[in-house]
Amino acid sequence: MDYYKLTEKRSMTPAKFLKILDRHGTVVSIERAEKILELVYKLSNLSMKETLMQIPDRHIKSNKKIFKRQTRKIKNENS
Question: Which superkingdom, per the lineage (predicted)?
Fold first, then answer.
């Protein structure tokens, strides 16, 4: 996975995350919301790494199986 480097775009702020939790009836402190948000980002990165590892790399020729056609040699009647 050296060819793919995860770059995080953190558009969710802890204050915004806190508002979302409040709307759903979960009351937490801002420090706790920061820790939860950090965990969510780490889990999403882990999920992306696992998903990318399962995708077959179709651009590498060494992974392709090459089937050669087998032909029978016809015996020459003159020999």
Answer: Bacteria
